[in-house]
Amino acid sequence: MRVVLGVSGGIAAYKACSLLRLFTESGHDVTVVPTAAALSFVGAPTWAALSGKPVSTDVWTDVHEVPHVRIGQQADVVVVAPATADLLAKAAHGLADDLLTNTLLTARCPVVLAPAMHTEMWHHPATRANVATLRERGVHVIDPAEGRLTGKDTGAGRLPDPDVLYAAVLAIVDAFPDAPPALDGASAREGAAGDVTPGASSAASGLWSGRKVVVSAGGTREPLDPVRYLGNRSSGKQGVAIARAAAARGAEVTLVAANVTLPAPDGVRVVAVGTTLELQEAMTAAAADADLVVMAAAPADFRPATMQASKIKKGDDGEGLRLELVENPDIVRGLVADRARRGTSRPLIVSFAAETGDSSGSVLDHARAKFARKGSDLQVTNEVGFDKAFGLDDNTVHLLLRGSDEVHTVGPASKDDVADAVLDAVEPLF
Fold it and tell me: What residues does CTP bind to (predicted)?
């Protein structure tokens, strides 16, 4: 794959070096096109050494080869990481005063922009308008992550980790159709998600286009006091991967994210929640007109009966702390019951079961019992533990389908591959 890696002038330019290595070590041909400002952070010799190609920022170098046109025309994907507020503004308004902005105008392949800037700049109305304009034209703008920024500040605006960007770019390229975008500026990748149209045959034929998909991800937190909470170790990676895969197939995707710090997939609407009751409310509302619900989040089974208004202090008697817990609602069973009350077969419901084996049964024994109780159409079971599933990039799952005794095992595989396997299993149900 021929990759153009654009780098604009932000402190996060150093992360682009790791992204470049991920592409080159996987055998991709990478041309780095930095802006002049980017070279103030990472010099041209570094880009040339890592890519194995000469580096230029202007349109006058090797002008006989017309690089300002050729580079974009020959690319399979153009990625700009980091994309500063200035770069976004230039791209949105079609300005072309250097080699990178010229390349953005000539590219007829997927264009992926990964913004990185201070939180106030990201939330500024001008930046939001520029992002909206770019997305309307079919450009993939990946929301920045939240975390430590320049200096002591934290917030939204951090460049996502290189491995997250790498996976997102590969998914976008895989979903891109063979035909190039229309030259009049309209996107040839029309789909309900607004940014991505699927490349798979089932999606290209319209199976996923326009379908409303709701995915939950992450782990809920039940507050004990203003400082502490009961929770679990779910990172949300699998749910985010499913949301990304559904959007790539052309679905209109809502991601209900419980304490997830990962960047939102391109073109996906995000609803942030904290507790299990908040997750239940958001899922119930979003599922009302959905075609598919994937409950990949890990809601807490119990919550404190009361939350203390102030921090719980240690006592001097050494007796410890006793907590009264109450059971949280079963969100999947509630969604199944709501569907039954409406007398409809939609939405299709996919449940997740994180299980451990014990003296009373194996992982699959417990999974089958849970599947029977919940009433979902498909259950994804994964074995969890201190070194399994949670937070890792790979996963092994067992798929149980309503009305079938067969168990389909997927993995060990990446969570993106697991996501595709889950959606493949759903397709016959449509």
Answer: 301, 311, 329-332, 352, 370, 374
CATH architecture of the domain with residue range 201-308+321-429: 3-Layer(aba) Sandwich (3.40)
Q: Under DSSP, is residue 226 helix (H, G, I), strand (E, B) or coil?
A: coil
386 is in an annotated binding site: no
Tokens describing residue 377: 């159409």
Q: Which of 130, 232, 382, 395 is catalytic?
A: 232
What are the residue boundaries of the structural domains of the chain, listed by start?
A: 2-175, 201-308+321-429
332 assigned ligand-binding residue: yes
| Annotated catalytic residue 130 | no
293 is in an annotated binding site: no
Q: What is the CATH superfamily name and number for domain 2-175?
A: Flavin prenyltransferase-like (3.40.50.1950)
Of 67, 79, 101, the residue nearest 19 (C-alpha): 79
Neighbours of 80 (CB within 10 A): 28
Same CATH topology for 2-175 and 201-308+321-429? yes
**402: exposed, middle or buried (Cβ count in 10 Å: 0-12, 13-18, 19+):** middle
Asked if residue 78 belongs to a known ligand binding site, the reply is: no
Is 71 annotated as ligand-binding?
Answer: no
Rounded Cα distance between 55 and 52, Å, is 9
Report CA 219 to chain centroid distance, whole Å.
Answer: 16
Cβ-based neighbours of 192, under 8 Å, separated by 6 or more: 209, 210, 211, 212, 250, 251, 252
352 is in an annotated binding site: yes
Is 301 annotated as contributing to ligand binding? yes
What is the full per-residue pLDDT of the chain (430 aa) written as tens digits?
A: 999 999 999 999 999 999 999 999 988 999 999 999 999 999 999 999 999 988 887 666 665 555 567 788 888 999 999 999 999 999 999 999 999 999 999 998 999 999 999 999 999 999 999 999 998 888 999 888 877 777 777 788 889 889 888 988 888 887 765 433 333 333 333 333 333 333 333 443 368 888 999 999 999 999 998 999 998 888 899 999 999 999 888 899 999 999 998 888 878 999 999 999 999 999 999 999 999 999 999 999 999 998 888 898 887 777 788 889 999 999 999 999 999 999 888 899 999 988 777 777 788 888 888 888 888 999 999 876 555 555 566 778 999 988 777 888 887 888 888 999 999 999 888 8
